Batch of 2 targets.
Target 1
Amino acid sequence: MLYLASTLENYNIQAVDGELGKVKDLYFDDNKWTIRYLVADTRKWLPGKKVVVSPSGVEMVNTEEQVVHVKDKKEDIRDNATLEEKQEFSYDKEVELSDTFGWKQYWSGEFLWGGYLTPLDPMEEPVRAAEPVSTEEPPINDNVHGSNHKLRSIENIKGEFQHGIVHGDNGKIGYIKDIIIDDTTWKIRYFIVDTSEWSTNERVLLSPDWLQSVDWVDNDFYIDLKLETIEDGPNYKKEQEVTQELEEEVYRKYRKEPYWKQ
């Protein structure tokens, strides 16, 4: 199953003994393009703070009730997984969170979740990374093209007013309207890109795995596809279910190797 980021942002985060708040944002790393933390809106009970939860701390996602159930108590999360509103992650903070809650150290192995394929794989003794991965945001004038791996906000790259612009080989493709997330691995599978300014395909699905480079200052995303290829590719209808058939068509039309065959 695949989640829309915009849909997840309407879900409540529920601890074992009470509600933490709605999902306010999602943090992903720009190396493996995977959601690493859910951010709860805690203004009602922790003004000026933000609470984060790793997908490896999620027990289940109830799509019918729109609730994300986490494994820990509300007080433990409040006391140990809280940051100031504008505080950035540090390596030490991520290690502290992992040690406190048993969250997987995604940076300490070759797989998507460190030594694991998914955030909910059975936990063994975690392996500590020898060198920390920087998770601090760059200064506003620092032009980063993916050379550093950082945690970034979904809210900064998708939406009507603040979004990433996707460029092809011969022009602007469109802007990132929403994000599609794999519910098993929490990997970002697709950008939903609005191409209505120039194409008869109002929306298309493009994988972040196809990106050649990213300018994180100007939010410009560069991909090796021509506008003619996008125009000839499959259209994505609003709130359309992403089936295996649709995914196969997307990869076939764009001549990309499917991720499930890699």
Target 2
Amino acid sequence: MSGAEAFRALHQGRAPGDPLVLPGPWDAASARVFAEAGFPALATPSHGVAASLGYEDGKTPADEMFAAVARIARAVDVPVSADIEDGYGLAPKELVERLLEAGAVGCNLEDSRGGALKDPQEHADFLAEVRSVAADRLFVNARVDVFAHGDGDPERAVERAALYTVAGADCVYPILAPADVLPLLRAGIQGPLNMLARLDGTGPSPTELGELGATRITFGPGLQRRAAQALGDIAAGLRRSG
């Protein structure tokens, strides 16, 4: 079984309350920590990787993002999916080739650019081309940005998700969707559903999100931020003791 097939299988047959939890490594060291903790797969966050490379979110050059993904994938023996934002303007063939060269088994592709939603049909066509080139070699997670950059209408999110699923997306990710609309999204979206879990205690736990209908859970830049905060506390302690 290939890495992509193994990754795809992890999304199938999940019981309510038992979502696939995918920590987001931002470098090779953090990837090894998560893999050694027993997580069966990982999903890089573009925001967290950007921070580790000294860039603002959305400002990482494509070459540096793919290089970072390659270092992460090389460091662990579990499948790694890569958040590659909106695809950096690359043609589907080059995008797929670069993901496979980096060792990724999947990718996130968002349907916004520069804070504005793309035309949904054009984005669906792009996803279909990516899927056609990749065949079964990549797991495509289609991010829906209605709650991040749109009007937050769940019905509009469901409409976009339907287009992307028909185009071949393996999973749909309505990022920043409130937990109270998750049952509505679950009822209207076919296939696996990715939800964002917060680490600040203000939202449902991964288990609770699973009970509401989430198939898999990611954390965005949350883990990298928590690690940076912990390092900041250590640094402050060193300053005091010095």
